[in-house]
Design goal:
The chain is an all-alpha fold. It is 58% helix and 0% strand.
């Protein structure tokens, strides 16, 4: 499994747990806000992604990349960067 796919699964599971929307109903191209993900949950998501993938991320990342697919690509790219880059 690719890192991008793993991140997408992690984001999907996070949204499902926090919003009550079943994971199988979360579409990769749908805006995360449409599932009821609020700004506090978005900040929690970024923190969870930082912890799991050992990357430093801006809380605004969720708003810059507002879908599961876009966000997973962005996080995967940051995770692939050399430390200190």
């Amino acid at each position: 499994m690719s890192i991008e796919h793993d991140i997408a699964d992690f984001i999907t599971d996070f949204i499902a747990e926090r919003t009550g929307v079943p994971a199988h109903e979360i579409e990769p191209e749908e805006n995360l806000g449409s599932y009821g993900l609020g700004s506090m949950q978005a900040v929690d998501l970024v923190g969870s992604l930082e912890d799991r993938y050992r990357v430093s991320l801006s809380p605004a990342l969720v708003f810059q990349y507002p879908t599961v697919r876009e966000l997973s690509i962005a996080v995967a790219q940051r995770a692939a960067e050399p430390a200190g880059a």
